[in-house]
User: What shape does this take?
Amino acid sequence: MDSKEKEKESQNKSGVDYSFLISEYAKQLDFPVRDQYLQKIAAIGIDPVLVEGKDFKLDCLPPVESTDILWYLVLETSFYTQKQFKAFRSLEAYNQMVSGFIASVQGYIIADKFLVLAKVRHSQRMNNSLISCWVITEREGTILFAHCLGCKAGLAETCSHIASVLFYLEAWTKINGRLACTQVKCSWLLPTYVKQVEYEKVQEINFTSARKMKNDLDAKIENLSNVSSPDNSAKGNVSKEIPLPSKPEMDTFYAKLSKCSRKPIALSLMPKYADS
Assistant: This one.
């Protein structure tokens, strides 16, 4: 039995009509994996890889919430293993989201469902080309299917790339849920894409943990009622210039330091106190 006959037999068993066009990516998948891939994309009747760039919009995204992410990553059943995902580790993929690993996220409505296309930086090999992912959800935000074109079949549904996109959608939902349609969009709150990691002086590197950045992002979203634009936010945080201390003030400061029970290391650089 050749591959075409096997494919027809599988179609009859699954009861899914695969009359739509499929991408070269789908054609290159192993037969069982390809059949499961086709069953997923049958929900919208087209291969998401083929619709890339067609009328997609940055603000046409599904209202995904934290409960949707938990249900999908942990409780949902895998198409490939027929077991619960239990991808608890992927719940930490907000690290990539807040660290600027997501290059683009766009959405489109097909067959009364949201189709989201995203491009994500590889989590380990920073110089590699961006990884494409797609997510299909219901109109109310329930996550139906997801697939990462850069991961193996068994991992492509709940990998960190997919999870980071879901956390991005959750943050987007929170932001737009707190804004009236007449208010200024606050997409500027979302982490911007980091094209490359530059060499920096230690004093200029941000060592804030991903967990802290996620908490800060959540706090900003919670306080959106007090924020309307980045310009207004900047006005409220105008820093005052602090004048440099005068020589008498510095002498007084060093004199007080010299009276400490233990000699501060800073005084070792001052000739007057170096040998004391």
